[in-house]
Design brief:
Number of strands: 2
Strand order of the largest sheet: 1-2
Radius of gyration: 17 Å
Oligomer: single chain
Mean pLDDT: 92
Number of helices: 8
Largest sheet: 2 strands, antiparallel
Helix content: 55-70%
Strand content: under 5%
Low-confidence stretches: 200-204
Shape: globular
Length: 204
């Protein structure tokens, strides 16, 4: 039992570090990384490594710092919740699916980089896995996490009622936020968790 619980924590931490550490290490050469690793319309199928690598480059220091902070929160959530190994696999599965869905961006998204979509997937996986586990006292927490995610997605998607899902330009960010990346991450995380964690107990 104890070994299985440790294994789940280690697996979740491993997926998180595969996201966060390359992002940090690539920062000194982020302009080159953006060109070589970022998601680009028209290359999604010809250069499939971008399904994963799009998460690592960042546009500016604020973008990187915000995503690293968010990543630390997602790692802490999985650690405290003692998620099973299957949850880590679900998060890993949601990673490329999140970026593949970017081709559905209203108006045609040409370019995307950053961790935010996959981090949203991680929160969705954690919330759904906790819910599916069905432990007394945890279901409300899981529902709170998932409800908070849905509220955030709704506020972002309908920020401009005239153009639902349009890119957002928060003051002071000098960059666009892509609501579809967050929606895609949550959707991919929920589906992956249901597929892989439906029968996962605390030892799985």
């Amino acid at each position: 039992m104890a070994a299985a619980l440790r294994g789940g924590r280690v697996a979740w931490l491993a997926v998180g570090l595969l996201l966060l550490l390359p992002s940090l290490l690539l920062w000194p050469q982020h302009r080159l990384a953006i060109r070589g690793l970022g998601w680009q319309a028209g290359t999604a199928w010809a250069e499939p490594w971008r399904w994963w690598s799009a998460a690592w480059p960042h546009l500016n220091g604020l973008h990187l710092a915000a995503n690293l902070a968010g990543g630390a929160v997602v790692l802490a959530l999985g650690w405290v919740a003692v998620l099973p190994r299957r949850a880590a696999w679900a998060w890993a599965l949601a990673w490329p699916i999140t970026h593949l869905a970017l081709s559905l961006q209203p108006g045609g998204l040409q370019f995307y980089v950053g961790l935010s979509g996959v981090l949203h997937a991680g929160v969705a996986v954690a919330g759904m896995t906790i819910w599916l586990r069905g432990r007394a006292g945890e279901v409300r927490i899981a529902l709170g996490v998932l409800a908070g995610l849905m509220l955030k997605l709704g506020l972002e998607w309908w920020a401009d009622p005239a153009a639902p899902g349009a890119l957002l330009h928060p003051p002071g960010w000098d960059m666009a936020v892509v609501p579809l990346a967050h929606v895609a991450g949550v959707a991919a995380g929920l589906v992956s968790a249901v597929l892989l964690c439906r029968s996962a107990g605390p030892q799985a």
